[in-house]
């Protein structure tokens, strides 16, 4: 006959095995998405000549370049924040007919059919926001003074396929401020969609939240056994 202590030991050992198995599933399922980790890169505006920041999303060289130009109080020059895709390897999600880089919210799908978005031409500079020539205040509502918005991008995977990814950015209300590039990620499986802000792949057959719920349930049973002992 099994004693109380034997029962506790068996259950505790089973819980450890369950946790290890769950971890293995999560690790395997999350392997497709490559996440940069926190970057928080800063870009201030240049006067006369734009300051730039290159972003390499998938480790194959520059995919996108941010360009930040201050307004000229003495002339007609309007300041601007733009993003340039690389010559042949990348393109941007744009806001339909406006032909500007779309400011996506967390959870927006980025894929081959990002309706109502469209994919911009490669090697083109896409406007994000403009700044008033006399005050420097942001004129566009797409990227002027926003926090934690996402640029949708795709990188050439060859054979007519693409890797889809995102870049998280916050922008100032004036060209006297600083753009912050927080982080980025892409899915290393060709033609696989990704959600803006997504850093791990969903666990098949129920997802990460189902896995978490099972883990919490198991932990509750473990605690009850500990009390009974």
Question: What's the tally of helices?
Answer: 2
What does the main sheet amount to?
7 strands, antiparallel
Strand content: 25-35%
Poorly predicted spans: 1-31, 206-228
How much helical structure, as a percent, in the residues? Answer: 10-25%
Helix-strand pattern: HEEEEEEEEEEEEEH
Sum up the overall morphology in one term: elongated
Provide the gyration radius in Å: 24 Å
* Total beta-strand segments: 13
Question: How many domains make up the coordinates?
Answer: 2
- Main structural class: alpha+beta
Amino-to-carboxy terminus distance: 16 Å
Mean pLDDT: 78
SSE arrangement:
Elements: H1 4-29, E1 33-35, E2 41-44, E3 51-55, E4 64-69, E5 79-85, E6 90-94, E7 109-110, E8 118-119, E9 125-131, E10 149-158, E11 161-170, E12 178-187, E13 194-195, H2 207-228
Antiparallel strand pairs: 1-12, 2-12, 3-4, 4-5, 5-9, 6-8, 6-10, 7-13, 10-11, 11-12
Summarize the structure in short.
The chain is built from two helices and 13 strands.
Structure description:
The chain has about 230 residues and is an alpha+beta fold. The protein has two domains: about 55 residues; about 160 residues, no CATH class. A hairpin with an 8-residue loop joins β3 and β4. α1 runs antiparallel to α2. The protein starts with a helix and ends with a helix.
């Amino acid at each position: 006959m099994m004693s109380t202590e034997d029962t506790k030991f068996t259950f505790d050992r089973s819980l450890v095995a369950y946790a290890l198995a769950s971890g293995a599933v999560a690790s395997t399922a999350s392997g497709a998405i490559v996440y940069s980790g926190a970057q928080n890169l800063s870009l201030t505006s240049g006067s006369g000549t734009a300051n730039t920041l290159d972003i390499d999303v998938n480790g194959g060289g520059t995919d996108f370049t941010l360009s930040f130009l201050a307004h000229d109080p003495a002339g007609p020059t309007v300041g601007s924040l733009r993003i340039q895709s690389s010559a042949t390897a990348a393109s941007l999600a744009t806001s339909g007919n406006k032909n500007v880089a779309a400011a996506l919210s967390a959870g927006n799908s980025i894929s081959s059919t990002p309706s109502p978005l469209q994919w911009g031409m490669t090697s083109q500079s896409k406007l994000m926001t403009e700044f008033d020539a006399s005050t420097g205040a942001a004129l566009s509502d797409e990227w002027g003074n926003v926090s934690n918005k996402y640029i949708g991008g795709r990188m050439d995977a060859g054979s007519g396929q693409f890797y889809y990814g995102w870049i998280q950015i916050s922008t100032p209300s004036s060209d006297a401020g600083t753009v912050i590039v927080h982080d980025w990620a892409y899915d290393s499986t060709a033609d696989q969609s990704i959600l803006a802000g997504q850093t791990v792949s969903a666990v098949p057959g129920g997802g990460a939240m189902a896995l978490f719920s099972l883990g919490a349930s198991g932990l509750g049973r473990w605690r009850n056994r500990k009390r009974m002992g």
